[in-house]
Amino acid sequence: MSSTTDLPVQDISSEVLIEKYAKGGEQTPDELRERVARALAQAEKPAERAKWTAAFLEAQQRGFVPAGRIMSAAGTELSATLINCFVQPVGDSIATPEDGVPGIYTALTEAAETMRRGGGVGYDFSRIRPMGAWVGSTRSHASGPISYMRVFDRSCETVESAGSRRGAQMGVLRCDHPDIEAFIHAKDEGDLRNFNISIGVTDAFMEAVQADGMVELAHKAQPSAEQIEAGAYQRGDGQWVYRKVRARELWDQVMRSTYDHAEPGVLFLDRINADNNLHYCETIAATNPCAEQPLPPYGCCCLGSIDLTRFVRDPFSARPVFDEAGFAEVVAVATRMLDNVLDVTPWPLPAQAQEASNKRRVGLGFTGLGDALVMLNLRYDTQAARDMASHISEVMRDASYAASSDLAAERGSFPLFNADLYLSGGSFASRLPQGLKDKIRTQGLRNSHLLSIAPTGTISLAFADNASNGIEPAFSWTYTRKKRLPQTEGGGFKEYAVEDHAWRLYRHLFGADAPLSDAFVTALELSAADHASMVAAVAPYIDTSISKTVNVPADYPYEDFQNLYIQAWQSKLKGLATYRPNSVLGSVLSVTPEVKQPEPLRAEVDGTNQRLKVERLPQAVVASLRWPSRPDMPGGNPAWSYLIQHPHGDFALFIGELPLEGPDAGLFGRNLPFEVWVNGAEQPRGLSALAKTLSMDLRTNDAAWLRLKLDALATVAEERAFEMPMPPSGEKRLFPGVVAATAAVIRWRCEQLGALQEGGATPVVDAMFSRNEPRTGVSGTLAWAVDVDNPATNEQFTLTLKEVVLPTPDGGTVTRPCAMGFSGNYPKALDGLARLLSLDMRVMDPGWIAMKLRKLLNVGEPLGHFMAPVPSLNGERRQQVWPSTVAYVARLVIHRYAMLGILDEAGQPLTDMGLLQTPAPKLAAAAGTLQVQAGKPCPECGNATMIHKDGCDFCTACGYVGQCG
């Protein structure tokens, strides 16, 4: 029994086929496949073209899917390239070539021509001199690589790619470039939207990270006089060292930016070049946009994937089998097809044609691995599944290299082939089985590189029945695709059911009500380490690289995430990218499990004041508390303590605990954390107030809410990072500040007590109108701000409240604060307090934030009391003594809520929404169904719900799939 037993074609597959790939009157996959087969057979001898046309058609029918550019353009009159992606070299001058590398604007022109013909482009911008460097020819200062990346970004946005889509771009900067920190944060605020970005990391840098060493940020360009005066100097090799930084501090910026903003990714340059089959004649510094192909200047990726689900015999049975022989046969024919692509494709640039002719790189891979494993009864995150994936990859490696050697015997080796150099030096080819190496020495090799696992995007929908993408597990088993209709068809949206291939085959064979086997697991159910482990299992058999995006949910703990790239380097991977839904790329302001309206959330303008508006009001489900205030304990209670050690002194952290009663306590009992406080003369100012408000979060019956609060504190950065011993063994960890360090200790203790376990009720989280801070459009939004001046502590700063307009049940609207922040001279621990209170502000019940603010009104501070005006709605002018800066800030926030008619001046809600009501039961989403996630705006439905999945853009609201692969 094969994997396609009597399965009807999905409507979405037919729709995508016709819209994206079909030409002329083509209606079926086989009609399109025949066009592609005829086109690629034109590279064969005339007498053999009919034979190879039939063989190429059969290979496609058996599961080979050439990449999207081939499927859409081969055999047509379009002058579009059949190659998906290229790498474009970029020099340091404006237009003058240097060492054979084109100047910046020449490179821009070449890239625009490449994208116009349908190719994506990757760049290494490391040659461009740093910001502020001296430009002798014009006696001016350089603007740096980031400024020029913006020029490339706008060009990509403008140039239509092969008549259909915008081009894709990858920007790379070396880890030792002086502008590397600006590069790390280049996309933090949504800039460079037409780029993926990755850092080119060296082994020396990673070793410095592990050893806590310093690294030199250097460039050949001479610094300015001011930079030299500030300490820049020239090394013996002629390079200028602009400054030195701690490797761990720089690395921590990388990981926190990746966690918060989904970029940058990492490329391990030394590993890439050491493993390169052509180590003897090229150096690689960049990749194509999805990173599965490290490429030299003007290099190309000629791609195709084989659907592994087509080779599973007797799927889901007691003894399913993978057809290795049949798979190897298709690999051999697919290798020949991709080699032919290089001869029949139009080339955007002569340099690209020459590079391809010299080396004849191709990239054959597979798709549907996740589904194939399910069909073989293997769960993706098990060793058995990884062993099977390794074995399949090994079969593909051996069959492709054997086929390429046979092609060399027939057609000749690639011009730069040198058997002695190619098969030595520790490269991938040097590790081939001895039999293959002997064959290559005797017959030669047609293609320098043969293997690459790329994302398959819409080609999986059109030609593989929506089998799981590339190396990935399935993202969801089923979802609804909402496709915008043209105005000629009445506009609006048409809905399609989209089902994963393995899932629908299982339902077809065993019935709609049959319980799924244990092998059915989706991407978001796996840990980041499980994702990376699969890449590590397959990578030894892939001569270029693997496109892998480690998708984790928004609440994935930073502690589990922060070492992911180090683990990838230690596993000898060539690179990795991650995606965690985040607020910078966009927020979903609805808490309903499905976006009901495909219209975008937009800013409403009312005269001079512009504010964000939430179109839909969620149900007012409000949290319940175990204790509204600290419980009365005449006999005392136990407390766990830990010494927080930071550069400005040490202080004690205490976590108060109470015995947990009821069935959850277990046989031997269990303590429950219910409060936090700090003690010691050297504690940072403002930290006690943070502990006080966090104590109230510990008293909720909502572990997800507590995780959300601790996650918010994990990335609070201060003037300098520091290392601190962590329980239980005292191992040192790097933290961006004392707030983050304190939060990590609290998290550790809460985990020990089981207070962060998943799966329980989430009443507070359910009551939020937005988990993420609502983002403004490009026009911005007005906010309420007030100045604070505490002469007792020499503090002068501005408190700012961002606000959002919410609909009310009676059809009106109400303005609510949704986030707060500080600027100026203030205790940096207040940044942590601001993050906590910002989350509290987004709980629908105003009684929640009111309770938090009232408890801060009496926070005192030794020698921190001061005289300041009392806020008043009636214009009364009087002053009073405030016990601390925090108390005054709390009073100002209450005053703003009073101005908006939400609280009175005493901090009591004017409309009680039932703070202590029992929440309604939460409706859990069906396992494996698509869940809306925050992301960037979707071009199809307009919602800010488009994430990076499996190397492609994917909208979690309407199911739009970016055209990659």
From TrEMBL:
<feature type="domain" description="Ribonucleotide reductase large subunit C-terminal">
    <location>
        <begin position="85"/>
        <end position="579"/>
    </location>
</feature>
<keyword id="KW-0560">Oxidoreductase</keyword>
<dbReference type="InterPro" id="IPR013509">
    <property type="entry name" value="RNR_lsu_N"/>
</dbReference>
<feature type="domain" description="Ribonucleotide reductase large subunit N-terminal">
    <location>
        <begin position="12"/>
        <end position="78"/>
    </location>
</feature>
<dbReference type="Pfam" id="PF00317">
    <property type="entry name" value="Ribonuc_red_lgN"/>
</dbReference>
<keyword id="KW-0237">DNA synthesis</keyword>
<dbReference type="Pfam" id="PF02867">
    <property type="entry name" value="Ribonuc_red_lgC"/>
</dbReference>
<keyword id="KW-0547">Nucleotide-binding</keyword>
<keyword id="KW-0215">Deoxyribonucleotide synthesis</keyword>
<protein>
    <recommendedName>
        <fullName>Vitamin B12-dependent ribonucleotide reductase</fullName>
        <ecNumber>1.17.4.1</ecNumber>
    </recommendedName>
</protein>
<dbReference type="InterPro" id="IPR000788">
    <property type="entry name" value="RNR_lg_C"/>
</dbReference>
<keyword id="KW-0846">Cobalamin</keyword>
<dbReference type="GO" id="GO:0004748">
    <property type="term" value="F:ribonucleoside-diphosphate reductase activity, thioredoxin disulfide as acceptor"/>
</dbReference>
<keyword id="KW-0170">Cobalt</keyword>
<dbReference type="InterPro" id="IPR013344">
    <property type="entry name" value="RNR_NrdJ/NrdZ"/>
</dbReference>
<comment type="similarity">
    <text>Belongs to the ribonucleoside diphosphate reductase class-2 family.</text>
</comment>
<dbReference type="InterPro" id="IPR050862">
    <property type="entry name" value="RdRp_reductase_class-2"/>
</dbReference>
<keyword id="KW-1015">Disulfide bond</keyword>
<comment type="function">
    <text>Catalyzes the reduction of ribonucleotides to deoxyribonucleotides. May function to provide a pool of deoxyribonucleotide precursors for DNA repair during oxygen limitation and/or for immediate growth after restoration of oxygen.</text>
</comment>
